[in-house]
Give the backbone structure.
Amino acid sequence: QVQVLESGGGLVQPGGSLRLSCAVSGDSFGTLAMGWFRQAPGKEREFVAGSRWTGGATRYADSAKGRFTISKDRAKNIMYLQMNSLTHEDTAEYYCAVGFNLRQPDISDGGRYNYWGQGVQVTVSA
């Protein structure tokens, strides 16, 4: 059984930063991939960033490139999403997702993930 738990959301001013955490319990980390997705009110869910736990490059959405960074704490089984230079357009519910045996091109496909966290709200507002 895999459990996914996000944390770190909140209210931040434009230009500010937040770090989201995604803690995963379970096994098979050798084949695990984790992704961050977000959904703003009235919009479809979109890919933000993702990576296989071991090996493979991290993928970022164009909107995240240069501003967001994924990092991993392998001892704690946590993946972080560092978000800098936040704008109003980044306001959304952010979800962490876990999948297994994803090919690199599948990292951005939410349909490939099997387990989802409950989501955390990120609000960028002055």
